[in-house]
Amino acid sequence: SELCQDDWLEIYNIYHDNTEKLIGRYCLLTAPGPVESTLGALGLKVILHSDSELVYSGFKARYTFEVAKSLFG
C-alpha cells in the first residue's frame, strides 16, 4: 500500500549518544536518491522490512564510504 504497511525501507542517522533519527521511510517505487549522514552522526542504519507476501523482484542499493568533508572547504 502507499502507506508503507507491507514492505518498506527505513534509513536512520545514528549518533554518539545512541539515539537515532529517521531520515525517511520508502516503499513501492519511491527512492530517496543519494543519502548522506548528517554532521555529528556516526553513520547510517538501513532497515528493510518485508511481510513476505506478493514477493516481486526485490531490493537493490549501492553504497560508498567516503572521507569526511571539511567544514572549512
Q: Can you describe what's shown?
A:
The protein has a 3-stranded antiparallel sheet with strand order 2-1-3, with no helix packed on it. The relative contact order is 0.27. The protein is mostly beta strands and 73 residues long. β1 and β2 form a beta hairpin. The chain has a domain of 42 residues. It holds the Pfam family CUB. InterPro entries: CUB_dom, Sperma_CUB_dom_sf. Keywords: Disulfide bond.
Search tags:
single chain, 73 residues, mainly beta, 3-stranded antiparallel beta sheet, 33% strand, elongated
Question: What's the short story on this structure?
Answer:
This protein is mainly β. The protein contains no helices and three strands.
User: How much helicity do the residues have?
Assistant: under 10%
Number of helices: 0
Strand content: 25-35%
Main-sheet strand order equals 2-1-3
Low-confidence stretches: none
Rg, Å, rounded: 15 Å
User: Major beta sheet, specifics?
Assistant: 3 strands, antiparallel
- Structural class determined from secondary elements: mainly beta
Gross geometry: elongated
Tell me how many strands there are: 3
Distance from first to last alpha carbon: 44 Å
Mean pLDDT: 83
Order of helices and strands: EEE
